[in-house]
């Protein structure tokens, strides 16, 4: 058996390996890392030589990880977390250097919070870069596999390595085109109405909040759309309704009529969730505080 000289391993190669695993594309990994494809390939070759395994191999037009690569994912993440922790006690000034964050949020949460927050940061001279990915009903692996560093969602993933914090509470209301129809006046009228649902790529639906809290017997939705931003085009000029959080009235559904639901429902809480690797990182602590302060001003 080959004796591996662990001292030849370096954080940059390990980070590149993880990003390639996450993206399953050399070109996408290069874009995300801000380097050339040849640089990514060079670092992978260096790691292959050290570990004695091809790690990533071609399969048709794409690439796939070897069994060894899959087994190394979590140990490599642990090593990088340890290296990162060495700098966690450093003084942090958001006005010095560049900040970069990957955030999972559906378009409602993204549009509600981050445009205004980014304008405020730009005014303060903070050089911050954000990459957003859809959250859907987020799985724990989004954080564990470092696909993102923060999730904003009413359905935070759970686990011993996952932290969460309440952002705000809201109520589900009924949105509709007030020039075409009135709000449903009873639970029966609501359940009989033609409605639009938002159904995410993981086949979960935003309407599950109502199913859980009110036990509705809803008919099949007239329309299912993949994100909240698609709602206005279908609501306008139609007799359709859509049950969404009231704060959507200041983003995607601005200008549409809304009314309380004609039955009792529970409060919906929005959370931030993050992995323990970022829990004590000063830059991430700072961002979470800024998000909370911004939301407190609008919710």
Overall description:
- There is one protein chain.
- With 299 residues, this protein is of the alpha/beta class.
- The chain folds into three domains: 6-85, Orthogonal Bundle (Arc Repressor Mutant, subunit A); 98-168 and 270-296, 3-Layer(aba) Sandwich (D-Maltodextrin-Binding Protein, domain 2); 172-265, 3-Layer(aba) Sandwich (D-Maltodextrin-Binding Protein, domain 2), CATH 3.40.190.
- The protein is built from ten helices and twelve strands.
- It has helices spanning 11-23, 26-33, 37-51, 67-85, 107-123, 141-144, 187-192, 208-214, 231-235, 282-296, and strands at residues 56-59, 62-65, 98-105, 127-133, 150-153, 162-170, 172-176, 196-198, 223-225, 241-245, 257-260, 268-275.
- Strands 4-3-5-12-6 form a five-stranded mixed sheet. Strands 10-7-11 form a three-stranded antiparallel sheet, with no helix packed on it. Strands 1-2 form a two-stranded antiparallel sheet.
- α8 (208-214) links the parallel β8 (196-198) and β9.
- α1 (11-23) crosses α4 (67-85), α2 packs across α3 (37-51) and α5 crosses α10 (282-296).
- The longest helix is centred in the N-terminal third of the chain and has 19 residues, at 67-85.
- The protein is elongated and about 70 Å long.
- It starts with 10 loop residues before the first helix and ends with a helix.
- The mean pLDDT is 87.
């Amino acid at each position: 058996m080959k004796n591996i000289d662990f001292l030849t391993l370096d954080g940059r190669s390990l980070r590149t390996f993880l990003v390639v695993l996450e993206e399953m594309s050399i070109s996408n990994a290069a874009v995300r890392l801000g380097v050339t494809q040849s640089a990514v390939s060079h670092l992978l070759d260096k790691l292959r030589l050290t570990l004695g395994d091809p790690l990533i191999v071609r399969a048709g037009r794409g690439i796939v990880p070897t069994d060894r690569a899959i087994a190394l994912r979590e140990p490599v993440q642990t090593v990088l977390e340890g290296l990162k922790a060495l700098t966690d006690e450093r003084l942090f000034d958001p006005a010095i250097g560049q900040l970069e964050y990957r955030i999972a949020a559906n378009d409602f949460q993204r549009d509600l919070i981050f445009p205004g927050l980014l304008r405020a940061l730009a005014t303060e001279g903070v050089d911050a870069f954000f990459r957003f990915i859809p959250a859907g009903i987020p799985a724990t692996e989004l954080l564990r596999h470092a696909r993102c560093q923060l999730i904003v969602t009413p359905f935070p993933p759970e686990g011993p390595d996952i932290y969460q914090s309440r952002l705000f509470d809201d109520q589900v209301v009924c949105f509709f085109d007030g020039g075409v129809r009135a709000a449903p006046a009873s639970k029966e009228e609501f359940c009989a109405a033609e409605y639009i649902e938002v159904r995410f790529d993981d086949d979960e639906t935003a309407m599950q909040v109502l199913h859980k809290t009110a036990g509705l017997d809803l008919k099949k939705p007239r329309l299912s759309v993949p994100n909240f931003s698609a709602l206005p085009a279908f609501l306008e000029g139609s007799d359709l309704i859509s049950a969404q959080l009231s704060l959507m009235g200041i983003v995607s559904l601005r200008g549409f009529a809304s009314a309380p639901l004609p039955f009792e429902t529970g409060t919906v809480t929005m959370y931030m969730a993050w992995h323990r690797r970022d829990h004590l990182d000063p830059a991430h602590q700072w961002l979470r505080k800024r998000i909370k302060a911004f939301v407190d001003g609008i919710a």
